[in-house]
Specification:
The protein is built from 3 helices and 13 strands, in the order βαββαββββββββββα. By secondary structure, the chain is α+β, with helices and mostly antiparallel strands.
């Protein structure tokens, strides 16, 4: 994976307030650490960082140039996102060196189609591998083409690029292939699904009714509260 050059600024404000101000300024709060060095707090340009992650994935290698003259290579170690806004809240970046081996989680993609009338369950969509920090693959692939029901795909079946070694257990289950349910089986389970749905709706209605009944009582209690006492002379 090719590295992405990105500029950064030292960050002097910390805590939730400082992080919010950094994000309002169009930057992502981040921290650089590793190799026994003291953690360095920085701010990354949000749009450039987001574009790089979209292209290269969570293991994108960054060549970071900080405005104080610091130049480093780093890999994202932990990325915090806002689930509603889908923006980046904070990033932990691990310092790396060229030729250094790192262990990272890499996405696994299933290719091909399993045998007819089967269902594929993707049990693990990432695998832990060890690779050169500058040559971490953006994804791994494994074929399920023609695989019959009752079979499994494990980490040992995933073909790894040259120089990449499997760090996960070889028996780690990547995908399971099962027989697709028949129309009769789906019809047989339909009453159970409907009953469960009706039960959930009844429970929700009961909770709403209970809350509505409690509201007048709480209001009445509030009206009975004594007035504030006057200050003593």
């Amino acid at each position: 994976m090719s590295e992405v050059k990105i500029s950064a600024e030292p960050r002097t404000e910390f805590g939730k307030g400082g992080a919010r101000r950094t994000r309002r300024a169009g930057k992502v709060p981040a921290v650089l650490y590793g190799h026994g060095e003291k953690p360095k707090h920085i701010a990354l340009p949000a749009l450039e960082f987001a574009a790089a992650i979209r292209r290269g994935g969570a293991n994108q290698l960054f060549a970071i140039e900080v405005s104080d003259g610091t130049q480093v290579l780093a890999l994202p170690k932990a990325i915090q996102r806002d689930p509603i806004k889908d923006t980046f809240e904070h990033v932990d970046l691990l310092l790396v060196r060229r030729g250094e081996k790192v262990t990272v989680e890499v996405p696994v993609q299933l290719t091909g189609e399993a045998a007819k009338d089967t269902l594929i369950v993707h049990d693990h969509d990432t695998l832990s591998v060890t690779a050169d920090a500058t040559k971490v693959p953006d994804h791994l692939e494994v074929s399920v083409e023609g695989v019959e029901a009752g079979n499994q795909v494990t980490a040992a079946d995933v073909e790894l690029p040259q120089g990449v070694e499997l760090a996960a257990d070889a028996d780690t289950l990547v995908a399971s292939i099962t027989a697709a349910p028949t129309a009769e089986q789906l019809e047989a389970t339909l009453p159970e699904v409907e009953a469960a749905t009706e039960e959930a709706e009844a429970l929700a209605e009961g909770e709403e009714a209970a809350e509505a009944a409690e509201a007048p009582e709480a209001a009445a209690e509030g009206e009975q509260e004594p007035a504030a006492k006057p200050a003593e002379a």
